[in-house]
């Protein structure tokens, strides 16, 4: 009898579901030290505007009678965590959590120069199995992280579990560009320029080949919104940025 193993995609490749995380971890291990520089180069700095827009949508409080706790999952080098704390003028308590210790190491180093370094904690964790108590966070954010997680639905279920009632999830992710005219230019840029740029900056084109391919495999906004609904989130909505290059999803645990 032949055993059938569950498969998924790693970029354009089909891989066993249990192998994907190791492959993803290697990608981010390889690029960790150059990750922030590459983000600026690849997006020509625009990722900063999308991240600012995400944090503006969250609008974290600047004061209150109890702590405002945020889990920034797949938080990598801490861009979102820093922005949330700054937007709250140091009031928010943020855990930047990621499965990759190298990304967190770079983040912790960067945090030494931040305005409110004491308000951000870095903690290694897998989005699929969070080591946090149920009903413990006011907000859960994840930027450009969810498409890398092998079992996306499991991660969304976990996000719902750890949020308090009344808590909010925000997911920022790349999407398929389908604006006539712009889609061809964007495809050309993604396929022809980003991997070679990755080779020059990080010494390896492969991780950036994976980044491009993984964007193409990510569910479209309607499908992903349905997954948020399946996890229990309500009032799910999304907005697109820069000709649909990125999409911000929002949902509430009611
Ligand atoms: C493209 S980076 C995004 C980093 C950061 N949020 C940002 O916007 O710059 C994706 C991150 O997802 C993390 N990641 C991948 N799989 C994960 C998982 N199962 N659990 C937690 N983090 C994961 C990677 O280690 C990586 O740091």
From TrEMBL:
Keyword Iron-sulfur applies: no
Pathway in which the depicted protein is active: Quinol/quinone metabolism; menaquinone biosynthesis; menaquinol from 1,4-dihydroxy-2-naphthoate: step 2/2; Cofactor biosynthesis; ubiquinone biosynthesis
Catalytic class of the enzyme: transferase
Keyword annotations: Menaquinone biosynthesis, Methyltransferase, S-adenosyl-L-methionine, Transferase, Ubiquinone biosynthesis
Enzyme Commission identifier(s): 2.1.1.163, 2.1.1.201
Residues that coordinate or bind S-adenosyl-L-methionine: 77, 98, 126-127
Top-level taxon of origin: Bacteria
GO molecular function: 2-methoxy-6-polyprenyl-1,4-benzoquinol methyltransferase activity; demethylmenaquinone methyltransferase activity
Family recorded in the similarity comment: Belongs to the class I-like SAM-binding methyltransferase superfamily. MenG/UbiE family.
Function as written in the Swiss-Prot or TrEMBL entry: Methyltransferase required for the conversion of demethylmenaquinol (DMKH2) to menaquinol (MKH2) and the conversion of 2-polyprenyl-6-methoxy-1,4-benzoquinol (DDMQH2) to 2-polyprenyl-3-methyl-6-methoxy-1,4-benzoquinol (DMQH2).
Protein name: Ubiquinone/menaquinone biosynthesis C-methyltransferase UbiE
């Amino acid at each position: 009898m032949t055993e059938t193993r569950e498969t998924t995609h790693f970029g354009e490749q089909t891989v066993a579901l249990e192998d994907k995380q190791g492959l993803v971890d290697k990608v981010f291990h390889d690029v960790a030290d150059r990750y922030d520089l590459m983000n600026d180069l690849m997006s020509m700095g625009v990722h900063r505007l999308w991240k600012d827009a995400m944090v503006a949508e969250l609008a974290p409080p600047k004061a209150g009678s109890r702590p405002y706790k945020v889990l920034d999952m797949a938080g990598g080098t801490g861009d979102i965590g820093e922005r949330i704390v700054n937007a709250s003028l140091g009031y928010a308590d943020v855990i930047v959590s990621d499965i990759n210790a190298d990304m967190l190491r770079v983040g912790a180093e960067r945090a030494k120069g931040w305005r409110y370094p004491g308000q951000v904690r870095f903690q290694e964790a897998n989005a699929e199995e969070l080591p946090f108590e149920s009903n413990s966070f006011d907000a859960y954010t994840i930027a450009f992280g969810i498409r890398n997680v092998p079992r996306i639905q499991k991660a969304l279920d976990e996000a719902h579990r750890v949020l308090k009632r009344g808590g909010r999830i925000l997911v920022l992710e790349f999407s398929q560009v389908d604006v006539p005219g712009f889609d061809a230019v964007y495809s050309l840029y993604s396929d022809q320029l980003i991997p070679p740029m990755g080779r020059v900056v990080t010494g390896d084109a492969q991780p950036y080949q994976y980044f491009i391919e993984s964007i193409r495999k990510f569910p479209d906004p309607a499908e992903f919104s349905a997954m948020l609904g399946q996890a229990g989130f309500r009032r799910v909505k999304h907005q697109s940025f820069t000709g649909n290059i990125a999409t911000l999803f929002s949902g509430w645990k009611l």
